[in-house]
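User: Could you check the structure of this?
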Amino acid sequence: MAQVMLRAPLSELCGGRTHAIAGATVGQVLVALRREHPPIAGWVLDEQGRIREHVNVFVNGIHGEERTPVAGDDRVHVLPAITGG
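Assistant: Sure, the predicted structure tokens are below.
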């Protein structure tokens, strides 16, 4: 299973920063994460199952998208955008 690393506020909604999640692609991993942690529904994926514009996903340090392959030993970082003035 891939290690999904979350930052606040997502980590707070999921009860921790690191989660072992199965899936062959980034999209599958994120859907499984949402299924296991319903409070993040709407925060990472939109209604069509696409990564929201304000969220960045990296697989082993490389920017990923829904179709990006994920292996069992990969690290998937989910980073919400930081805004401010």
